Amino acid sequence: DLVHSLFADVYADVSPGSTVDISQFSRRYNKLVLIRHLETVLNYSSDMVLGLRSRLYREFDERGAGEVIIPICQAFLMGRSPSGVSNIVTYNFDNALERALARLGVKDVLSVFSEQTYRVRSASLKIFHPHGFLPHEEDDPAGEISNQSATIFSERGYNEQFNQTWNWQNLAQLQQFTTTTCLFVGLSLADPNIRRLLDQARRHVPPTPLAHVSIQRPSGTKLLDNFLEVDLASLGVATLWVSDYDQIPALIEEIARA
Predict the structure, then answer these.
(1) Strand arrangement, sheet containing 237-241
(2) pTM listed for this prediction
């Protein structure tokens, strides 16, 4: 939806008054091809990033997002968990988590979105944005942070991150995958680079049972669910099933008390 709406916005500016049927493109080309085309049309300028940020927050429901984010903050980050969370990796571009923490009065939070911010050591909680960081316009009115951040949204970005094994984004993820138990929330774990890093982490640590946990919703067929369990297990990830995503906040509360 984000790609399609951005496509419509760009073509509304490129060809005013014309109507573009996005479906005719999306049926034939995957989203990476569509995004590469938009980059070409915009001459690889910062307009792509700022347009993406504008579209990202246009219909942003902060209250709705808080229904999941606030319970996570309260369970793991507000002293209610026996072992606190010191690092978070989010593959979203937004700063919804940072804004929720600020409303809860949590301080000493560092958003990590560049080589420079990755090197900062003094922070009680780090929130890593390995795929890019596009803060709300209220928090970045001039777009300075958004333009500094390497947004992994296009084919070029994915290829660059995949090929540069020792960039800070990959190192940050590898550090979590090899030294901590990670809970994956809202991820399909289909991203090739994340899978590669999980594989790499599994090869470089002593053999252990499933090291991480992913919350997933059943597909509706036992065969497909079993397929997913086996696939994630090969990456060192156990599957925790919920019948509906609305159950996630209560489940996280239960995990935090365990």
Answers:
(1) 183-185, 212-216, 237-241
(2) 0.87
